[in-house]
Amino acid sequence: MKGIEKMDLDYIIEDSKILKIEVIRIKKKINSLKKERKFAINSNIGLNGPASAATKEISLLQSKVDNLKKKINIVDRGFPFFEKYGFVENIGVRLHNFTFL
User: Fold this and answer.
1) How far is residue 81 from each of residues 5, 29, 46, 49, 77, measured CA to CA in Å?
2) Which pLDDT belongs to residue 83?
3) Disulfide: which of 54, 56, 68, 84 matches 37 by Cβ 3.0-4.6 Å?
4) What's this model's pTM, rounded to 2 decimal places?
5) Which residues neighbour 83 within 8 Å (Cβ) at sequence distance 6 or greater?
6) Inter-residue contact 55 to 37 (CB < 8 Å)
7) Would you tell me the crossing angle of helices 17-42 and 48-76 to the nearest 10 degrees?
């Protein structure tokens, strides 16, 4: 396993701390967007477009939070989480460099 330990395995998440920090960051952004949306809705200068855009962004960010919470649950139960794109990219590079006999 020493070879694996030396590799850059950034697609394996074994500690939920980084995920929890990302959830906090996204929640702060959601709160900021909610304030912007409230201002846009309460203003009398016709900011319906920005209010609608903020609502859509809040929904998108909330789905990211929900997805991160699922990942946190996986990692906190003791299972590593594999980021699909990093994993596939790493396997592809490794297979490309492999010589078949």
Assistant:
1) 16, 25, 45, 38, 11
2) 66
3) 54
4) 0.68
5) 10, 11, 12, 13
6) yes
7) 160
